[in-house]
Amino acid sequence: MAHVTKHIFVTGGVVSSLGKGLTSAAIALLLERRGYRVRLQKMDPYLNVDPGTMSPYQHGEVYVTEDGTETDLDLGHYERFTGIPCSRASNFTTGRIYSAVISRERAGGYLGKTVQVIPHVTDEIKKAIRELDAADVDIVITEVGGTAGDIESLPYLEAIRQFRQEIGRDNGLFIHITLVPFIKAAGELKTKPSQQSVGILRTIGIVPDILICRCEQPMNEEHKDKLALFCNVDRELVIDEPDVENSIYEVPIDLARQDLDVYILEKLALHVNSLDLKQWKAMVRTLIAPRRGEVEIAVVGKYISLRDAYKSIYEALTHGGIANNCRVKVRMIESEAIQDQGPARLLAGVAGILVPGGFGDRGIEGMLRTVQYARTRGIPFFGICLGMQCAVIEFARNVCKLGGANSTEFDKDSPAPVIDLMEEQQRVRDLGGTMRLGSYPCTLAEGTLARKSYGAARIRERHRHRYEFNNAFRAKLEGRGMRFSGICPEGELVEIVELPKHPWFLGCQFHPEFQSTPLKAHPLFRAFIGAALKKRKR
Ligand code: GLN
Asked: Looking at the whole model, is its pTM more than 0.85?
């Protein structure tokens, strides 16, 4: 029989931020651990072509895939939970869908026709879903962003309704994730919002096969009976997903306990192979009860008030902890607070300091003082992207005595532009999708922290930046003790800097956090947390 790729469509109801991405990733993990080859994708109903031009305050972190696509942070969950690499086909926005339709119209692709949301936009959405169909893919999970009832989600809901109609019931299913809120005054869980949300889906012809209910407390039998009856869902397919106690990595274990994956496979007429969650469960056990206690790491950034802005960084720190059998406690510090109050009190007692990425000059002086504090006090320091650039600027100013050293991003007329626009960026005018993006190779010098941490001479890491270390200053900084341990062979770009005299000081131009997973912590995060543990002992 010809290979058929099956489809799962995940929608959300009642409110946003229910953790649809997390739940989709957890389902993907379970199906993968039952031997199926899964792909994930997210549809975002906004008009930006991609999230690359949005502020982290609007959107949270921009996650970068290997092929250099700037995407929604849910793709980070997809990659961390599963071994599945995401790509350009894993995230579509309304902006991207419309721009394809409009370009085709201008090229004469619809000659003679009136171009409309139905069928032309919905066809384009269906095409985007089909992009992941392949002979080596068994199941595609498509998450529709937004909430049922939003005007902007409508074309997506219509498209997935048509899609399932075309492929047939055995080949596609609908999962709806809703909120079952606990009303304190009444002392009970309420199912009415979920019923109404399913009602909205039904008016557009979608009847969910499975209902996943996010709730603060587990539901009882009565709630489930009610939801099954009023939402037209089989009783055993009303699944509850209460808030997890310790970690998001418990979600798949909770869902498996209710046999969600078994029901999914049965609905899709696929064989129910055995489930192997051994490794995953062992990882969660270490995470919850590590043997080596706790280390505290300061993250000093400029988007601290929004937890989602550094999502992958926080996750990668957790992974570094798992690999070292310790818990990582993060002290989040706004770099402007360091500017105002100085580093001593705010950073007192931490075992390691991380300065993450960012854009624009707000808070830079605070980051520079943070670097100086870590450098002069021998506190393990990890600078990522902007964090590495700050490490270079601080060293140039305070060790090499290059007054006014800066990045031209912050001071166009700096007398010592140690960080500068890359050659190919000089001519770039558009801001969307034009940075140095995605995976590039990097060669590691022998006898360096980087080489030791990776245990390899050549690596690949993902990038998202416009500015770069200025090689005109290399000899000068090298002369005062900075080591350039990672170089991109395509163009001699500096990718990693270190201070060999310091217990652990490393900055990288790329974003290692995007390649870290709970089962396989990124080597630099593992080494950084290892160094912090040593520092704690001292
Ligand atoms: N703003 C810096 C640049 O564009 C750093 C970017 C980042 O931290 N992702 O080079």
From this structure: yes
